[in-house]
Amino acid sequence: MTGTVKRLARPRRRDVEKGAASSKNRRVRPQRKAMTGVWIALMALFFLQGLFYVWCRVQCINAGYAIEQEKSRHETLLKVRRTLNIELARLKSPERIETIARTQLGLIMPDAKRTVTLP
Question: What residues contact residue 96 under an 8 Å CB cut-off, 6+ apart?
Fold first, then answer.
C-alpha cells in the first residue's frame, strides 16, 4: 500500500437515521390515517351535499310540472263552468219556459176572469 489511502466507507446519513425514522414514521402514519379519514369524510360530505342539491332541484322541477298541470286543469274547468253558465241561462230564459208551457204542457195565459186576487 504505497501512497494510496483507503477510505473507510461511512454509513450514509439515511442509514444512520433509519432507526429514528422508522419510529418517526410510526408516529406519522396515524396522523396520515387521520388526515385521510378527514379527507374521506369531507369528500363524503361534499358528495352528499351534491346529491341533496340535485334532489332539491328535481323536486323543484317536479313541483313546477305539477303546478303547470293544475293550471291547465283549472283553465279547462273554467271553460266548462262558462259553458254550463251559458247553458243554465239559456234553460232559464222566460221565452223558452213560455214556449214549453204552451206547446208541451198545453198551458195558456189566464185572462182577467180567471185571476183571483187574495187579500
Answer: 90
Residue at 6 is within a domain: no
Which DSSP category does 113 fall into?
G
Exposure class string for 6-32: b at 16+ Cβ within 10 A, else e: eeeeeeeeeeeeeeeeeeeeeeeeeee
Alpha helix ranges (H) inside the chain? 13-92, 94-103
pLDDT per position as a tens digit, 47-83? 999 999 999 999 999 999 999 999 999 999 999 999 9
Cell 259553458 locates to 83
Question: In which domain, by residue range, is 39 found?
Answer: 22-107
What tens digit of pLDDT does each residue of 1-34 get?
566 666 666 656 555 555 555 555 555 555 667 7
- Cell triple for 29: 402514519
Examine residue 14 and state whether it is found in any structural domain, yes or no: no
Dist CA 33 CA 30 (whole Å): 5
**Residue 110 φ then ψ, to 5°:** -75, 145
